[in-house]
Amino acid sequence: MNQLYKNRHPYMFIAPAVILLAVFSVIPIGVALVISFTDMNLKGLADWSSISFIGIENYKQLFSDDTFLKSIYNTFFYVIIGVPLVIICSLSIALLLNYGSNWLFTTFRAVYYMPSITNIIAVAVIWGYLYNTEYGLFNYLLSFLSVENIPWLGEPTIAKISLIILAVWKGIGINMIIFLAALQGIPKSYYEAAEIDGANRIQMLFHVTLPLLRYATFFVSVTTLIGWMQFFEEPFVMTEGGPLNGTMSIALFIYKEGFQFSQFGYAAAGSFVLFAMIIIVTVLQFKLRKSDTEY
Amino acid sequence: MAAATKKSRTEKAIVTCILVFGGILVSIPFLWMISSSFKPESEVLAIPPTIIPDNPTIENYINLFTNMNFAVYLRNTLVIVFFSFIGLLFNAMAGYGFAKYDFKGREKVFYLVLATMMIPGQVTMIPVYLILNAMGLTNTMTGIVLPGLAVAFSIFLFRQFMTTIPDDLIEAARLDGAGEWYIFFRLVIPIAKPIFAVQGILTFIAGWNSFLWPLIIANDESLYTLSVGLSLLQGQYANNFALQMAGAAFMVVPIIIIFAFFQKYIVEGFTMSGIK
C-alpha cells in the first residue's frame, strides 16, 4: 500500500485524461455494439425494460433499406472524386508555396489555410448564399458566359458535386501544410546533385521530389480517405441529405436515424457497418503500400 | 549563369501569378461575406450585385445583438473555450505522465489512447448521448463540455514533445527537493511552451467552432453556442442574406485575426509533430 502511494504520481498525471477517454471513447464502443443488436428507441431510453434483443435484425434491415444503400453509393461518389482532388490540389499548392519564402508566400500560405479553420456553419451560410439560384454570386458570374442558372443544390448529382467543391475548398489547408513541412525537410543537396547530373525541372519533380514525398502522400491519403468516408458536415448543414436523398452520406444517415428518428439500435448498427468499411479500406491501403515500397 | 537566373526569375513570376490568382479564388467566399454583411437588406438582393456596398451600414451587426441573442451565444462559446483549455492541461499532464514516468501498464494504456483516435465519431455519438442521458447531463453545460475535454491526438503530441526533455533536468530538480507537481508546472510547462502555443491555438479554434455536440445536447436556447445560434438564424431569416453574412463574419473574423498572428506556430507545430 505504501509502495503504491509512493508511486502515485504517474497515475495522477494521466488519470483525468485517461478516465475521460475511457468513459467517452472506449466504453461507448461496447455500448454501441450491444445496442446495435437491440430495438432501442425513444421508449427504451425512458424505460430500459422495454428494450429487447433482436439479434442481427438491424443489420439485415440496413441492407434492404433503400436510403442506406443510396447513402453508400453517395459516400463512394464523394470519396472517389473528392479524395484525389484534395490530394492533387493540396500538393500542387504546397509545391508552389515552397518556391519562395518572402512575405507574399507566407501571406498566401495563410490564405489557403483559412478555409480549413473556418466554422462549418459559417461556411454553410456563406456558400448557401453563393450557391443561391437567383441571388447567388456564382450564377451571376456565370451569366456573363451566358450559362443558364444552375440549380447548385437543387438536383441530386449537381448537389453532390457542389458539396465536393465546398469540401475540397475546406480540406486543402491542413494537407497543404503537411506537404509543405515534408517539402521543407528535403535536403538541398539532392537537387544540387540532380542538377549536376543534368536533370531539368520536370525530371527533378518526378524523380526527386515526388518519391521523397511518398510518406507524406501516404499519410495524407490515409487520413483524407478516413475523413471523407465519414463525410457528414457538408450535407448536414447545406442540404440535410436532399434533394431526394441525393446528398445523403452514411454518416448523415446514422445521425438522422439516431437523433431525428430516435432509432438508437438501428443507427448503432449503421455506425458499425461504416466502421467496418473504414477498417477494410485502411487495411487495403496499407497492403498496397507494402507492395510498392520494394522497388 | 546569367541565363539561369533570368529563367528562374520568369519562373518565379509565373508561380507568383498562379498563387495570387488561386488565393483570390479561395478567398472569394470571405470577401463576399464581408462585403455583403455591410449592405442594407434591400441591396443584398439587388441584381446586378454591388461589389462594394453603395450604402454601407453596420445595422446588421447591431441586429445580431438586439433581435437575436448573440450575446448569450458568445458567452456560452467562451465558456466552452475556457473549459477546453482545462482539457488541454489534462492532455498535457497525460502526455507528461506517458513521456517521463515508468509505470506498470504504461505501454498498454498509451496504445489504448492511440487506438481511440481510429474510432469514427459516428460510432461513439449515440452511446455517449445515452451515457450522458443516464448521468442526467443532457441539456447542461457539463454535458456539452465533458466529452470533448480529452483529445487523444493532443496527448500524443504532448508526449512526443516531452520525451525530448532531458531526464537529468527533472532528476536534478528532484534532488533539489522539488515536488512532482512543482516540477511539472515550473519546469516542464515553460520548456514545452512551443507545443502549448500550437495546441492552445488549435484548442481555441476547436472550442470556438464547436457545433454538433452543443446542438445534440442543448435544448434550451440559453445553452446555444455561436454556431448553433447561426444555424438558427439561417433558418429564421432565410432570405435576409445581409444578416446571415454579418452572423458568419462575427464567427469567422476573430479566428482569422488570431490565425494571422499565430500562423507561424501552427506551421511549426506540424513540423514538430514529425509528420514528414
Please provide a written account of the structure.
- The complex is a heterodimer of chains A (295) and B (276).
- Chain A is built from 15 helices and no strands.
- With 295 residues, chain A is mainly α.
- The model of chain A has no long low-confidence stretch (mean pLDDT 88).
- Chain B folds into two domains: 2-59, no CATH class; 68-236, MetI-like fold, CATH 1.10.3720.
- Chain B is 75% helix and 0% strand.
- Chain B is built from 14 helices and no strands.
- The model of chain B has no long low-confidence stretch (mean pLDDT 87).
- The chains are: A mainly alpha (295), B mainly alpha (276).
- Chains A and B meet through helix 2, helix 5, helix 6, helix 7 and helix 9 of A and helix 1, helix 4, helix 5, helix 6 and helix 11 of B.
Keywords summarizing the entry:
heterodimer; A: 295 residues; mainly alpha; MetI-like fold; 15 helices; B: mainly alpha; 2 domains; 14 helices
Task: Set out the fold topology.
The complex is a heterodimer of chains A (295) and B (276).
Chain A: H1 2-6, H2 8-35, H3 42-46, H4 57-62, H5 66-97, H6 103-113, H7 120-131, H8 137-143, H9 156-184, H10 188-196, H11 201-212, H12 214-229, H13 233-238, H14 250-260, H15 264-292
Helix pairs in contact in A: 5-9, 5-12, 5-14, 9-12, 12-15, 14-15
Chain B: H1 2-37, H2 41-44, H3 59-66, H4 70-100, H5 106-115, H6 121-134, H7 141-145, H8 152-163, H9 167-175, H10 180-191, H11 193-209, H12 212-217, H13 226-236, H14 241-272
